[in-house]
């Protein structure tokens, strides 16, 4: 065993640093760059189409209905619900000012 290896084994009780990251959109920075709504729609619409047509996207295509699904804790657990149809409607209404705002909503899913 080399000396450097033996030193490592002596220090193997190092505690990891745990950092809490809040992924809610309220914590995300605001972006100053603005884009034309039509340009955003032109570039983001194909992404939304791929998301909708993905075989794994079924559960994310529409908003969750906690009453119909009998999950009353859903709004307590999921603070910022998001789904593909909501992102699509926000894009069509011109609510996104840049692609990073769209990305933030997709990240919430």
Automatic annotation (TrEMBL):
The keyword Transmembrane helix does not apply. It holds the Pfam family Bromodomain. It comes from the Eukaryota. Residues 52-109 form the Bromo domain. Keywords: Bromodomain. PROSITE patterns: BROMODOMAIN_2. InterPro entries: Bromodomain (IPR001487), Bromodomain-like_sf (IPR036427). SUPFAM superfamilies: Bromodomain. This is Bromo domain-containing protein.
């Amino acid at each position: 065993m080399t000396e450097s290896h033996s030193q490592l084994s002596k220090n193997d009780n190092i505690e990891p640093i745990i950092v809490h990251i809040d992924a809610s959109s309220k914590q995300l920075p605001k972006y100053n760059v603005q884009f034309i709504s039509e340009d955003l729609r032109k570039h983001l619409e194909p992404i939304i189409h791929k998301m909708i047509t993905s075989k794994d996207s079924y559960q994310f295509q529409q908003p969750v209905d906690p009453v119909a699904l009998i999950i009353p804790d859903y709004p307590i657990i999921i603070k910022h619900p998001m789904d593909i149809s909501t992102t699509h409607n926000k894009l069509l209404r011109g609510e996104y000012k840049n692609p990073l705002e769209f990305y933030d909503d997709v990240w919430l899913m």
